[in-house]
Amino acid sequence: MQTQVMTSGKTATIKLSGRFDFNAHRSFRDAYESQLGASEVKEFEIDFGQVEYVDSSALGMLLMLREKAQASAKGVALVNCRGTVKQVLDIANFGKLFQMR
Fold this sequence. Notes:
Elements: E1 2-8, E2 11-20, H1 25-36, E3 43-54, H2 56-71, E4 75-79, H3 83-91, E5 99-100
Parallel strand pairs: 2-3, 3-4, 4-5
Antiparallel strand pairs: 1-2
Helix pairs in contact: 1-2
């Protein structure tokens, strides 16, 4: 998986591409940790537009980000979810835990 971090105003967008699975743990963590301490960032947007696969470890990574973001008074939104990725997130009831756009 590849990650790309962009900030615009109060939003840090983490654009993911490829397979979001256990092998992506380090790159995903590195992508958001640099933004957790940024006082100007108030929300994380995780862009799934180019993600072809997610597994249970990816769901765990999203929950970990959610915990850390809440501790820093930041929100998390999941955007551009579609296909099987959206199905997995829906089955896991992530729509109740995250904003989904």
